Amino acid sequence: MKKQLSIIIVNYNGERFLKDCITSIKNTCHDISYEIIIVDNASQDNSIQLLETQFSKDITLIKSKDNLGFAKGNNLGVSKSDGDLILLLNNDTILKHSLQPAIDAFKSNDVGIVGIKMLGKDEEYRHSVGYFPSASRLIKLSRLYNFANGFKTGDFQDDTPKLIDWIEGSFLMTTTAIWHTVKGLDEDYFMYVEDIDFCKKVTTHNFKVLYLPNIEYLHFGGYGASREHMLKEGFKKYINKHLKTPKKQLALLSVGFNFMIKDVKKTFKKTS
Questions:
Q1: 214, 219, 224, 227: CA torsion to nearest 10
Q2: Which of 173, 170, 18, 163 has its CA nearest to residue 99?
Q3: What is the pLDDT of residues 257-266, one digit of tens each?
Q4: Reported confidence tier of residue 215, pLDDT bands at 50, 70, 90
Q5: Closest by Cα among 47, 128, 162, 29 to 83
Q6: CA pair distance 82, 35, nearest whole angstrom
Q7: How do beta strands 93-95 and 111-119 pair?
Q8: How do the domains of the chain map onto residue ranges?
Q9: SS3 of 73, please?
Q10: Main-chain phi, psi angles of 3, to 5 degrees
Q11: Which H/E stretch holds residue 67?
Q12: Burial of 209 per CB tally in 10 Å (0-12, 13-18, 19+)
């Protein structure tokens, strides 16, 4: 029987998070029909053992021999799914509330993507939505020292539903029909910015991105040096794909300058 929701989780060395993530799905999604598909990207920890011994009846496990990255891993998971809706969910997340209101939002024919409020491990508000990158936004001085929060400007902390440009891929819900219309995530992105790119593709088909901050989830993700590099490369790919000359050149210069400023700041912090 076809499910309402296919939950796709791409896992790489996420053993310490998986149990809480899957348990939270079972605790909050009992009022809907769903399936959990986990794509393991050649984890080197005991993720596979945990999943096969404790959750074999709850999930469909796809074991990749290689680390496919976020975009390709999710595309693989969706290709094996059977739900009317798709939820991309990070392995280091915990759902706090029923997802029924998010599912109900798709009763409006123009809603193409739904996101919810992201909280950190201490339940503090964390940015997870924003506006599309543009040359003008990139060159504003206010962004120079906070590029990791790229274009997450605006007041998103209250509980009022809002139409925005994009939501983070740690929780991204869409319809299977829309997913196939835009051909899923662009696999040119290994990790980061593919979520913004996906939202851009969906909005070009005249669908809206809806943010529902009255539903919350915890996300334990961190930010390291490797993330900075992949984020920079991701934004370069996005700019080359979606912006036109001369705005493209201005945006690319601004990306490089933003990250240079961040590196200088880190150096001063270490030496001060």
A1: -70
A2: 173
A3: 455 444 433 4
A4: very high
A5: 29
A6: 8
A7: unpaired
A8: 3-271
A9: helix
A10: -85, 155
A11: none
A12: buried
> Which residues have C-beta within 8 Å of that of residue 135, sequence separation ≥ 6?
243, 247, 248, 250, 251, 254
- Can you give the pTM of this predicted structure? 0.84
Strand partners, 61: 38
Tokens of 243: 């912006």
71 touches 39 (CB < 8 A): no
Beta-bridged to residue 211, according to DSSP, are 115, 162
For 84-113, what is each residue's pLDDT tens digit? 999 999 999 999 999 999 999 999 989 999
- Report the C-alpha gap between 119 and 134 in whole angstroms: 27
Q: Which of 6-10, 133-137, 222-226 has the highest mean pLDDT?
A: 6-10
**H helices then E strands: how many in the chain?**
9, 12
Q: Domain 3-271, CATH 3.30.200.20 — does that match? A: no
Both structure tokens of 148: 């990791």
Residues in the chain: 272
Contacts of residue 243, Cβ cutoff 8 Å, sequence gap at least 6: 133, 134, 135, 251
Omega of the bond leading into 246 within 30 degrees of 0 (cis): yes
The amino acid present at 246, given as its one-letter code, is: P
- Assigned token pair, 222: 């961190």
* DSSP H or E stretch at residue 247: helix 247-271
Alpha carbon separation from 38 to 16, 59, 169 (Å, rounded): 15, 7, 15
